[in-house]
């Protein structure tokens, strides 16, 4: 019995026909990117929002605003700031975490976003997995300050006095769980000292009481203290970080003074998007924001808010920073016995 191939022999294609099919196939494959591009939605094709978890006027809000305009020009769409203050920044973070991962919602993500899980406990979002990082945009040290008339003029004098009089000194903070608060807790743990933290609703109120002498010390960030340091109503004892602050060049770092553990503690701001945002959008945002942060205009504006322009080499680098911060704080919070207010 003959096989199917024997019963139905396949005739070879004529050379001209074969060349036509090959040419048609090549044309189809070449057109695929065009079809794909036409089918994919253009990004961005509408306004983008940046959620800021603080009220208008603060250093973080000002930084988001100074970046928003050049970013809008680069992307060809408006970039609008939405201030969602409240619950120590949790309202804004939760709103961003629930947003569609389409590149139209950006969150100004800060150091405190990695601290509050250790203090509050379970949140309605996970700082480690609810967001895809883009880049850092600014950093600043924790600053240990004293009233200008205080007899304490150095970290060593502070340590000596506190060891002899444990618990007698107090220091003002701009709220429970700020980076500056935890930096001073690390300081106490490393130096064997004991002081009492006095929380305020913001750095401005804390400064008033330190300048007036009602509270002898403070642990704050650079932005709210600069005018008072220049005026001589506050004196700086030390700053965190590996290098001296360009805004406080005469102030030594804790590391210089022999106090370990504070060289990598900083206040910082960065940008993230909801988890699942397309990688191409994240890369575009990263590249544009990093470019903007290096422009002379932004570098000059950053001087007015007391923060150092700092960017991440890649989104992955910023992701690793967030992971390290989330891992660091639980032990510090537990040792200090910090409770939510």
TrEMBL record:
<protein>
    <submittedName>
        <fullName>Tripartite-type tricarboxylate transporter, receptor component TctC</fullName>
    </submittedName>
</protein>
<comment type="similarity">
    <text>Belongs to the UPF0065 (bug) family.</text>
</comment>
<dbReference type="InterPro" id="IPR005064">
    <property type="entry name" value="BUG"/>
</dbReference>
<feature type="signal peptide">
    <location>
        <begin position="1"/>
        <end position="39"/>
    </location>
</feature>
<dbReference type="Pfam" id="PF03401">
    <property type="entry name" value="TctC"/>
</dbReference>
<dbReference type="InterPro" id="IPR042100">
    <property type="entry name" value="Bug_dom1"/>
</dbReference>
<keyword id="KW-0675">Receptor</keyword>
<keyword id="KW-0732">Signal</keyword>
């Amino acid at each position: 019995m003959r096989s199917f191939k024997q019963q139905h022999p396949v005739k070879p294609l004529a050379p001209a026909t074969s060349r036509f099919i090959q040419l048609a196939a090549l044309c189809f494959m070449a057109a695929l990117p065009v079809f794909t591009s036409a089918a994919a939605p253009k990004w961005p094709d509408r306004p983008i929002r940046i959620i800021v978890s603080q009220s208008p006027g603060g250093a973080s809000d000002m930084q988001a605003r100074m970046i928003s305009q050049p970013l809008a020009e680069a992307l060809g769409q408006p970039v609008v700031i939405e201030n969602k203050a409240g619950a120590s920044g949790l309202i804004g973070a939760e709103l961003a975490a629930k947003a569609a991962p389409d590149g139209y919602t950006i969150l100004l993500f800060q150091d405190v976003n990695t601290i509050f899980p250790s203090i509050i406990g379970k949140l309605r979002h996970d700082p480690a997995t609810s967001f895809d990082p883009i880049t850092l945009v600014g950093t600043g040290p924790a600053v240990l300050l004293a009233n200008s008339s205080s007899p304490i003029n150095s970290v060593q004098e502070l340590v000596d006095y506190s060891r002899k009089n444990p618990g007698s000194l107090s220091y003002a903070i701009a709220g429970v769980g700020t980076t500056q608060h935890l930096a001073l807790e690390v300081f106490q743990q490393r130096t064997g000292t004991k002081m009492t933290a006095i929380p305020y609703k913001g750095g401005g109120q804390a400064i008033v009481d330190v300048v007036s002498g009602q509270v002898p010390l403070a642990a704050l960030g650079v932005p709210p203290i600069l005018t008072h340091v220049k005026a001589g109503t506050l004196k700086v004892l030390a700053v965190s970080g590996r290098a001296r602050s360009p805004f406080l060049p005469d102030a030594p770092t804790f590391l210089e003074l022999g106090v370990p553990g504070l060289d990598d503690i900083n206040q910082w701001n960065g940008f993230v998007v909801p988890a699942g945002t397309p990688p191409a959008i994240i890369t575009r945002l990263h590249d544009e924001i990093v470019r903007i942060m290096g422009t002379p205009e932004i570098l000059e504006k950053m001087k007015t808010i007391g923060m150092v322009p700092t960017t991440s080499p890649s989104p992955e680098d910023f992701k690793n920073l967030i992971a390290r911060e989330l891992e660091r704080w639980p032990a510090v919070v537990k040792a200090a016995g910090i409770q939510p207010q």
